[in-house]
Write a structure and sequence with these properties.
The complex is a heterotrimer of chains A (272), B (314) and C (537). Chain A is an all-alpha fold and 272 residues long. Chain A contains 9 helices and no strands. The radius of gyration of chain A is 22 Å and the shape is elongated. The relative contact order of chain A is 0.15. In chain B, 77% of the residues lie in helices and 0% in strands. Chain C has 19 helices and 22 strands. In chain C, the strands form 5 sheets. In chain C, strands 6-7-8-3-9-10 form a 6-stranded mixed β-sheet, with helices on both faces. In chain C, strands 16-17-18-13-19-20 form a 6-stranded mixed β-sheet, sandwiched between helices. In chain C, a hairpin with a 2-residue loop joins strand 14 and strand 15. Chain C starts with a strand and ends with a strand. Classes of the chains: A mainly alpha (272), B mainly alpha (314), C alpha/beta (537). Chains A and B meet through helix 3, helix 4, helix 7, helix 8 and helix 9 of A and helix 1, helix 6, helix 7, helix 10 and helix 11 of B.
């Protein structure tokens, strides 16, 4: 084992803190995140409310903790959908080749011609702006990226001699795909899923910020930010803390992703 | 040369066609009668019936697609349910606003980040490199909508230098209009610096370990010449591709920044249309942005041979 | 011996400070003006690093820890970066191994050749142009005027290496460092490029350091040789003496690793095991189709080692892959034990069990996520009648046959050396006791001494188990050692075939003669070493 890089340590620390906060937040929070308390309306950070209270007097820390678990679950579900769909399509496309491949590549390219979260926005128009709509829309929107990367990995693995060795020993195409190709896709998929978790978290908060995500009163970091916009002058902390949380978690995921890529992707190895 | 350009355009046509297919069927997937959806809840049964025959909804789906595609080619993207304006006109007007902001931000970010990334790569693992890489990672991790809010808080509210709400077109009143776009440009600029710096550094590092760089040094060339004559042209090609992608992605993601700064751009138009279930506008925006994205990538593709002679232009 | 000293390296130590390892530990050498020396060693010997240190271009992470380098009576350690730069190119030139990456793809040949001249000479643009054209003509570029306007990707590997030589020799350096300058080239091209390099160095009176793993090549072009092993110079001496009477054990090992002819064997005549008739294959289709095989006929008899030799693009690997069942030909038939091979025929299972393959790159031919035991056991999956205890026993058996003890069974490929990996690949091929083994460049990627061991192992196993072997190789030295019969391929057709001694001693085709002129004949010398004799082209 090599020693852990600084990237991996800082990234792991931030992501670890996020996971712990999300886990605790799903079972216990200092206050009821939904409880209105007009006496505490727009109260600044204090001993009672460590990170202050919002325009309805709800405790910001409690809402952030619950929001962490909500965002975490939405992101995990999205990554799971995109990874499973994308891996299936990408490996079939890359391994079978021929017409199946051509059709799938054409569709993938058309879907990738929608920049950023645009495809998700379009899909949200169909599925509706709620938790399930977001998971489906983002999951489908990220599927082409996964499919493309898995296809590329499968294609390059097909050139490796151990695949020829498997064929020479008489293994069937399906066996070769399942026994030799897919296990070797795990490393790039791990790196991709990690970054995808970050993209989803970001997209989900962006959509919630636009009002197209998880609807209030259920807290997410994005809709908390959106709600804070009108009170920016009086209560800046309402906008500061949720944004800080998103940034720290994203930084953690980015650093962790870099560390994983350095370790797992031989092309990047030794390049720091 | 002409054949190269034509072949690249030829390669983009199927993509645009498939994009059109996706946009068309996306709206057809919404449950309900497309004619009723396209006219909104307030439409009279007569006008719904009229549109049904216009769109050929009684004919098969391929004929419907052909009718829609013909309309799109004639510049007819339908009529907005909420404002009753032609969608094409709305999209173009709003696009001008967004495009100005995005183009300026990407141009500035490229000018700052690409040289910085190359210099970081040249001094790999030095203090300068570490600082630049850390700053890039940080900028990359801050979501634009929060960065925008913080900038708004500082320059709009605390310092009071720039207007917090409202928008004046730069075309109508250049000096006042500029004040309204400064903060959105700064926000996008800071974010894209992170993306571009990392990419430029990675491309330069990739080139720096190749033998011809060592060969250039072994000839006795000074580092400056090595960087600008040998590293830059080869590392710039992949960076150019990324700049194209960044441009397109910004158009997709600009809605949040326009929301923060209350700018009437294309992103905001799309989001408002989704709120208002204004399907003709949704369709128009999706199609327009995707086509622009394909076009930007096409232009990048066409510029590629300038930087990489291995791409054949015949 | 009054020629002045050009370069002195004194007890040079190079290492990675971060992990406290030395790549070069106290090597000294002196080089006089116009002298040509060779540095020979296997990978990891530090031979390239030593000369990189001389020109001051060590890779990141490696630095000078001790000792000194003096060039033209100046200590390189005292030079300012500016003075060091003036020395590079003009004083010391450097040629690399890989011609495909040593020229900048974005600049024309003309501009790349010109920048050194502009930097180091007082020539004006017209003089520079004239010098470039003359030099390109000298290195054998057919149309220099067109070449200066062309980009590197428009040339083949051999041509690029000529351009590289032109680029370096234009500046007429006092010292030329050639780091494996022809390793990436075809055997025939290798010889031509080396002859050119040698002639140019001779003409200009340039001193040369030739770095190579190839003892025979170094012997041909140098006056003196340094043998390096693990960062230390183990022996130094005049080339001819060192070759004939090596003193150090490692030098002897290197020399004995050079392939030499084994006694001819008699293979009992019998019906062919595998036959190929009128085999044709083209890649691509329609007008862009590129024909690779033009109707090949070939028989492989039981128990013989048939070598398939040829340069790159000869179609030898393609033919091997067709016989292994990895490629479908456009036309022609493959028969095994007299039966046509196709997936539906009854004999297919017998063919698949009895035709196995060993690949070139041991880093790519083993699944990185499987343990050695699983890799070797994988083909046994198809032996339906075998019980798992028998399979395990067979795996242990073949592993010990290839010289790997049971302690290797639970390792992963990345925990093995290149030679050990190739042993695992051989074990996998032999697990089902096949009658035919196709070895595609099976020793090409290995270091000299390891290559000799694997070659020995292969012929021992063949002797014991009696399988037929199709040995595909570009390396005639290796072929001369191992083959019973040789088939020479060139551009998709068989040029010539016959017993090994016929082909090597009495070649009839001019292409075969050209191939043979690139490899030396070895004969034992009195001092325990060898004598080298080159065949006429």
């Amino acid at each position: 084992m090599k020693t852990l890089s600084a990237n991996a340590m800082v990234g792991g620390l931030f992501v670890g803190a996020f996971v712990i906060a999300a886990c605790i937040g799903s079972v216990w929070t200092p206050y009821d995140p939904m409880a209105l308390d007009m006496k505490a309306r727009l109260a600044g950070p204090s001993i009672q409310h460590l990170l202050g209270a919002d325009e309805f007097g709800r405790d910001v820390l409690s809402r952030l903790m619950l929001g962490a678990s909500a965002s975490g679950i939405v992101s995990l579900a999205t990554v799971a959908i995109a990874t499973i769909l994308g891996t299936a399509l990408g490996s079939i496309s890359g391994y079978l080749g021929g017409w199946t491949d051509r059709v799938l590549v054409a569709v993938t390219n058309a879907l990738l011609a929608f920049p950023g979260i645009l495809l998700a926005l379009g899909l949200l128009a169909i599925f509706g702006a709620n938790k399930y709509g977001i998971v489906l829309a983002l999951g489908i929107a990220y599927t082409p990226s996964v499919a493309r990367i898995v296809r590329g990995t499968v294609l390059s693995l097909r050139e490796r001699e151990f695949i020829d060795a498997s064929r020479v020993s008489g293994d069937s195409e399906m066996y070769t795909l399942l026994r030799h190709i897919l296990p070797n896709c795990l490393a790039p998929l791990t790196v991709l899923s990690t970054s995808m978790f970050g993209w989803t978290l970001l997209s989900e908060s962006a959509l919630s910020f636009l009002g197209l995500g998880v609807p209030p009163p259920a807290p997410t970091w994005g809709n908390m930010l959106a709600a804070a916009r009108p009170y920016l002058a009086q209560a800046a902390w309402l906008a500061i803390f949720p944004g800080l949380c998103i940034s720290i978690v994203l930084l953690g995921i980015n650093l962790l992703g870099d560390a994983l890529r350095d370790r797992l992707d031989p092309k990047m190895r030794g390049m720091q | 040369m002409l054949r190269f350009i034509l072949s690249r355009i030829g390669m983009a046509v199927p993509t645009v066609f498939l994009v059109a297919v996706v946009v068309f069927f996306l709206i057809r997937l919404v449950p309900g009668d497309p004619a009723a959806l396209l006219l909104g809840d307030m439409a009279s049964p007569e006008s719904v019936a009229a549109l049904r025959s216009d769109l050929g909804l009684d004919k098969n789906i391929l004929t419907q697609f052909a009718i829609w595609l013909t309309n799109v080619f004639q510049g007819d993207l339908g009529t907005s349910i909420t404002t009753k304006e032609p969608v094409a006109h709305l999209v173009i007007e709003r696009f001008k606003v967004s495009a100005g902001i995005v183009l300026v931000a990407v141009a500035l970010a490229s000018l700052a980040a690409v040289p910085a990334g190359f210099i970081a790569a040249l001094r790999q693992n030095s203090k300068l490199d570490l600082t630049l890489v850390s700053v890039a990672a940080l900028l990359l991790s801050i979501p634009t909508f929060w960065l925008g809010l913080v900038i708004l808080l500082i320059f709009g509210l605390k310092l009071g230098w720039l207007p917090v709400v409202g928008y004046v077109s730069v075309a109508e009143d250049p000096s006042r209009g500029l004040l309204y776009v400064l903060m959105p440009i700064l926000t996008l600029f800071l974010h894209e610096i992170g993306v571009l710096l990392r990419m430029a550094r990675a491309s330069a590092l990739e080139v720096l370990r190749l033998d011809y760089i060592t060969h250039a040094r072994a000839k006795g060339l000074p580092e400056r010449t090595v960087l600008w004559r040998h590293v830059f042209p080869n590392a710039f090609a992949p960076t150019l591709t990324l700049i194209g992608l960044v441009l397109g992605n910004m158009l997709g993601g600009i809605a949040v920044v326009e929301t923060v700064f209350t700018i009437p751009g294309l992103g905001r138009l799309l989001v408002d249309a989704i709120f208002g279930r204004d399907y003709p506008v949704i369709q128009g925006c999706l199609l327009f942005i995707a086509v622009i994205y394909v076009l930007v990538n096409l232009i990048v593709d066409l510029c590629y041979p300038l930087f990489d002679p291995r791409v054949k232009i015949t | 011996m009054n020629t002045p000293t050009l370069l002195t390296v004194d007890r040079l130590v190079l290492g990675a400070t971060a992990v406290a390892t030395q790549v070069v530990s106290g090597v000294s050498l002196t080089l006089r003006r116009g002298e040509r020396i060779g540095i020979v060693g296997e990978s990891g010997s530090g031979k390239s690093m030593l000369m990189r240190a001389v020109i001051g271009l060590l890779p990141a992470g490696i630095s000078k820890l001790g000792g000194s380098v003096r060039f033209e009576d100046r200590d390189m350690g005292d030079l300012q970066p500016e003075d060091l730069r003036k020395l590079r190119g003009k004083g010391i030139g450097l040629i690399f191994q890989e011609p495909m990456t040593s020229l900048n793809p974005a600049l024309t040949i003309g501009r790349q050749l010109e920048e050194g001249l502009a930097l180091h000479t007082a020539m004006d643009a017209n003089e520079r142009q004239a010098a470039i054209l003359a030099m390109l003509r000298r290195v054998g570029i057919a149309d220099p005027d067109a070449a200066v306007r062309a980009f590197p990707h428009e040339f083949s590997g051999g041509m690029r290496q000529r351009i590289m030589i032109a680029s370096v020799m234009l500046l007429e350096p006092a010292l030329l460092i050639a780091d494996e300058p022809t390793t990436a080239l075809d055997a025939v091209v290798q010889r031509e490029v080396l002859e050119l390099l040698h002639a140019l160095v001779e003409e200009k009176g340039t001193a040369m350091v030739l770095i190579s793993h190839d003892m025979a090549m170094v012997a041909q072009y140098t006056d003196r040789v340094l043998v390096m092993q693990k960062g230390v110079c183990v022996e130094e001496g005049a080339t001819s003496e060192l070759l004939r009477a090596p003193r150090h054990e490692y030098t002897r090992k290197l020399l004995s690793a050079l392939p030499r002819r084994a006694p001819a064997r008699a293979v009992a005549p019998s019906a062919p095991l595998a036959s190929v008739r009128n085999m044709k294959l083209a890649y691509g289709s329609g007008s862009s189709a590129k024909a690779v095989l033009h109707g090949i006929d070939l028989d492989i008899h039981p128990g013989e080692i048939v070598a398939l030799v040829g340069g790159s693009g000869s179609g030898k690997t393609t033919l091997g892959r067709i016989i292994a069942g990895l490629l479908q030909p456009n036309e022609g038939t493959l028969t095994f034990r007299g039966q046509a091979v196709n997936r539906k025929s009854g004999g297919y299972a017998d063919y698949r069990a009895n035709c196995q393959m060993v690949f070139q790159d041991p880093y790519s031919s083993l699944d990185p996520r499987m343990r050695v035991r699983e890799i070797v056991a994988a083909p046994l999956r198809h032996e339906k009648s075998m019980r798992s205890a028998e399979r395990r026993q067979r795996v242990d058996e073949v592993l010990s046959e290839v010289g790997l003890g049971p302690q290797f069974a639970d390792r992963f490929p990345h925990q093995l050396s290149g030679g050990q990996r190739q042993r695992v690949a051989i074990a996998r091929a032999l697990a089902r006791r096949p009658d035919l083994v196709i070895a595609d460049e099976a020793v090409s990627a290995l270091d000299m001494t390891v290559k000799a061991q694997i070659l020995k192992l292969l012929s021992q196993l063949q002797e014991q188990q009696g399988f037929a072997c199709l040995f595909i190789s570009h390396d005639l030295g290796v072929v001369e050692q191992i083959a019973d019969r040789v088939v020479v391929m060139h551009r998709g057709v068989i040029e010539e075939q016959g017993s090994r001694d016929e082909i090597f001693d009495r070649p009839t085709s001019s292409y075969t003669k050209k191939l043979l002129s690139a490899v030396p004949m070895l004969t034992p010398a009195d001092g325990g070493g060898i004598d080298l004799v080159w065949r006429a082209a």
